[in-house]
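Archive record
______________

***
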Amino acid sequence: MASDDAAGLGTFSTLSIGIGGMVGGGIFAVTGLTIEVTRGAAPLAFVIAGVVALLTSYSYLKLTLAFPGEGGTVEFLNRGFGDGVLTGAANILLLLSYVVLLAVYAYAFGSYGADFLPEEGRGFWQHALISGVLIGLLAINVLAARLVIRSENFFNGLKMLLLGGFILAGFLTPMDWSRLSPEYAVSPMGLIAGAMLIFLNYEGFELIANASKDVADPRRSLPVAYIGGVLIAILLYALIAIVVLGHLSFEAIAARRDTALSAAGEAILGRAGFLAVAGAALTATSSAINATFYSTGRLTYIVAKTGELPRELERPIRGEHAEGTLIVAGLALLIANLVPLEAIATMGSAGFLLIFMGVNIANVRLARQTGSRAWISALAALATGLALVVLCVEVDENPATRNHLWILAGMIAVSLAIEIVYRGITGRRLRLGGARR
């Protein structure tokens, strides 16, 4: 969302896009859930998920340098796998995964917003806030999209400042380090599954690819943006998890799972800490919803332009590609209000792991064109694939979350069905560069 001047995006602005995409509402939504699942190993869980993202960012870097443009992931999958049904279904699954991401952000906004209100009736107000923020920010995106673009740098800077302050205050205040000891660790399988449950916190680096055509010096800026952005996110997430564990007992975290960061802020600085962190959560989640609405509008347009969705979705409203945003918002409303947070996180993380595995394999196949070390992308494909398997197996063994896999299977089935039916009706094939034939 950052912009420099007519010369294009500089290194800092390109890095800001990646960090803004990763450090959004997700960390406020799932920190408590992460600690509940991985206990004292939560900081390590964020590191493990970050390493998988870091390996994948190499594929994105090489593919973006070779094929710059607004197509991003859609273009990479099309070039790597051609115009088959599975390629089209993968691109639609990417769009659905962003719907899930929106639901995570809205859920977090509703949870932190309801924390300001009396406990009685808090459930009602949480859902009212979830719906209100999605509908309100949808209207802003449709009616004043340029305002969204201009405001993102400010909101990115503000949330980084507030999170940095939270970490600093946490370490300057006496902490209980015992909860980080090995006795509170979980099994290796449980740790990896927990790490992959929160993988959606790292997916935002792929937004850099969509802005690549505007980068002034890609070979200088993109490595810093991709690799540096993921490394910064890993450090930030691990430190936040350490601070929360250092100031809240496991019982307190379980009781305030959806708003663990504001609970930790209150433990550190009292009411002022609660207000600062809760305010940061509302700012970060609304900013993330704004940015994701804008991105999914463009993504829907790109997918339609390749021939995978109806031409109607290419039509602009007030100069913006808003019809896709309207559809995405409607689906996000349903998921955020009807699906538990654990299921939403599972769906989103599994969806992005599947997509990123495809991108890594695509870069292996295109290694000569992209000048890549194929073994790195092969390792990244293996890492994302194994992570997906572990996530699914571990979730399937838990009776409380077993149905979540059926929701993921439904997302995949819907993506395939849309692609097969639409391909059958139109008889079209995909073409690189977004042209139909």
About this structure: The first helix runs from residue 11 to 22. Residues 89 and 413 are 9 Å apart (CA to CA).
